[in-house]
Amino acid sequence: MAETLIQFGILGCADVARKVSRAITLAPNATLYAVGSRSLEKATTFAAANGFPPSAKIYGSYEAVLDDPNVDAVYMPLPTSLHLKWAVLAAEKEKHVLLEKPAALNVAELDQILEACESNGVQFMDGSMWLHHPRTAKMKEFLSDPQRFGQLKSVQSCFTFLADSDFLENDIRVKPDLDALGVLGDVGWYCIGAILFAADYELPKSVIALPGTVFNKAGVLTSCGASLLWEDGKVATFNCSFDANLTMNVTVIGTKGTLQVHDFVIPFKEDSVAFSAGIESWFNELVTGWRTMPSEHVVTTNLPQDALMVREFSVLVADIKRNGSKPEQKWPTISRKTQLVLDAVKASLERGL
Prior knowledge:
The protein is of the alpha/beta class. The chain is about 35% helix and about 25% strand. The longest helix has 22 residues, at about 330-350. The radius of gyration is 21 Å and the shape is globular. GO terms for molecular function: nucleotide binding.
């Protein structure tokens, strides 16, 4: 049976929408059907520049995309402050929702979005592309192996990049009325997500913000970190920043093994990635080197991770459309747990701990 082709509408013309437009084009079970912007001219220019077919619908409002009966699903690269309004409206119009991260400003807003999706029988997924890469599944195999990895003890994650002056002055991610979570929502979302992934999505018992938090003059976070502690004693730390060299590292340490990856959010190369696994590591006899070296595990893919995300989302949407299935709860559950920890970091920062 041929795959059901899911017709996507895109709300907004943010830079990341260019990447996801390409991903929709590459995914074998999805197609670019419509784009909407508050400016018809901007939507027209965006469609022409990003591979939309000549038959694509171009709209001068977000509402028009949601009112189109042929739109199955919407991708929303809107500022976080607009997520609640438009994601809820999309769900009420029975459009499946692929929502850019961070999913919401707080878990109360996200719960309203998820309730709207559930009550209208539509699939929700946030735009954490790395979770859909086959490397991620291979890393989970290693972390779940008691013989090779053992029991989880600690996780460290880091996502930083050096933003230029224009970004720090004008990007929506540093504007309190558009993306008030700043760096915590933009790249901290990934750091928290990686920690929860390693912890098999068990929530920590405590979250404490680390010293050294930096705010811009508008009061938006540009650098921060936190430590997480679980009931069984495992710990995690993360750092995220707009003021340091591009780094996307995760280190996961168990009683028997260590996993390391240096490009967990955006791979160095689209078609071939790697992670290292150290097992029962120890020194040589004279302690002049290591007796057991970490092994490199290479994972290849024919589709980039963003297209794999679109493909997975479209499979779920097609199952709902064709078979009347219920939406898959894995993805909203992951989003909500990530948001809960993000909220806890923010609360700790506000308490001054």
